[in-house]
Write a structure and sequence with these properties.
The chain is α/β, with parallel strands linked by helices. Helix content is about 40%, strand content about 15%. The strands form three sheets. It has a seven-stranded mixed β-sheet, with helices on both faces. Strands 9-10-13-12 form a four-stranded antiparallel β-sheet. The protein starts with a strand and ends with a helix. The structure holds ligand TLP. Ligand TLP binds near residues 8 and 10. Ligand TLP binds next to α3 and α4.
Length: about 350
Amino acid sequence: MKVIDLRSDTVTVPTQAMREAIYHADFGDDVYGEDPTTNRLEEMAAEMTGKEAAILVSSGTMGNLISLLVHCGRGDEIIIGDQAHIFYYEVGGMSALGGIIPHTVTNQRDGTMRLEDIETAIRGDNIHYPRTRLICLENTHNRCNGIPITMEYTDSVKELAGRYGLGVHLDGARIFNAAAALGVPITDLTRGADSVSFCLSKGLSAPVGSIICSSREFIAEARRVRKALGGGMRQTGIIAAAGIVALEEMKERLTDDHIHARRLAVGMTGISGLTVDLETVRTNIVFFHLEDTGLTEDDFMARLEERGVKLLHLGSFQFRMVTHHGITTQDVDLALDILRDAVG
Ligand code: TLP
């Protein structure tokens, strides 16, 4: 049976070009800064995001954690959306490992936080308060329907942060999806952030890896923190070789994933029992709601699984599907038939 795996773009497997690049890569010990392939990937990433330097890390979670640990000391506070991946899905690492306090602000449906809400959350100079250090943004915003956040918004947060002497960190796990959807260069979306982390292992289809980009000084400190977390790896060219192919060859095709997500969402509007807000489907993520069809959530999931469709159940009758390199137009149409069948 054909499996249509729509759980996430993290399920993508390396392309043939990536496998070949891994096979032919040059290697060295990256803890000594001597892996030529990793050095090349890091230079490319820094240049693409308009930053001075970059560092390869094992995952998006590690990229965000290291960035927060560089920005903040123990007892410091960050301002972060209440739907942010860092707050929601990263195991509370910032607090467990860094003693950092998340001060949450409501995420609007479009993934932004109101500037006035951010400003209200910034601590004044009072002996009772923790120090606010950082504002965290996410682009695209995973739990807000994968919506891309504009450069105007990011710039306005940067301006606000500047007035209070705060840093801005951007969780740009899917920043290339945002750039593709908005039709802007990546640097427009990263210029408002002091540090940005993005993932090679999602829509870009590399098997492993994320990259933090920032100033030279910040990245030098990130290298120390990465080592402390056990993330100092050795012949990382094996990861970086696929990452280079990801950055060179896989960005342009993200638009196909967006077209597929749109096709999926439009198709779902014709299936009674499922609701999707078309307005919000702008990149490769589709959230939908299972209405009262007499089916339990588990029944619904089981029916889909039986027929080969995998998706993510978020609770409260909410589900998520993500399109990616492994999903074709035919897969989308087949998934729609299976969804129709499951609720029918
Ligand atoms: N997100 C995963 C799951 O954790 C939910 C997914 O399938 O979408 N930032 C954002 C915005 C992310 O969506 C993710 C992964 C990460 C960071 C963490 O990346 P990894 O999984 O590499 O640690």
